[in-house]
Amino acid sequence: MDNRDFLMSLSKEELVELVGIYSRNMLAMDGVWFQSVERRFGMDEAMRHDAEAWARFTRTEARRIKKFLGLGEGSGLDGLEKALMLRFYANLNDSRIDREDGALYFTCVRCTVQEKRAEKGMPLHPCKPVGIVEYSGFAEEIDPRIRCECVSCYAGAE
To answer: Per-residue pLDDT tens for 77-96?
Structure first.
């Protein structure tokens, strides 16, 4: 049996659980490399590399999700809303999406990264600069007309 046949043999519930496992593994890998750079070279250098990595990764992720969803060019906020729900860590954080006055508001209510850092006694991750790179790049890849801004940042980590 090859890998595809094995995956096809799994139940819907098992596949959903596997997506969660893959998401947690990806988040763990992101944290492992970041903390390695942070310990060795400090937060500023880790953030510089983090921004570079997310600038590239987020666009790749968006392109793949866009293709999977069959979103055409100019899919707008409707396309972005669908795509945000399929990001690799969408099922790890508690988040919500609201629409108001022609805008889409993505809110992270509970952040796994910040929780894990707090559990380890580490300072909060200063996520705002990288978050702007990440979410702007993702949104622009879904539809180049979309512009992002940060209205507020988790736990004041700005």
So the answer is: 999 999 999 998 888 888 99
Confidence of residue 158 (pLDDT cuts 50, 70, 90): very low
For 127-148, how does the pLDDT look when each residue is reduced to its tens digit (9 = 90+)?
899 999 999 999 999 999 999 9
Tokens 């819907």 appear where?
12
The string of DSSP codes covering 92-135 is TSEEEEEEETTEEEEEEEE-HHHHHHHHTTPPPP--HHHHHHHH
109, two tokens: 């209510």
Domain boundaries, the chain: 3-156
Distance CA 16, CA 91 (A): 10
Using CA atoms, how far apart are residues 84 and 90, in angstroms rounded to an integer? 7
Say how far apart CA 63 and CA 60 lie, in whole Å: 5
Please tell me the pTM assigned to this model. Answer: 0.89
Helices 12-41 and 112-119 cross at an angle (nearest 10°) of 60
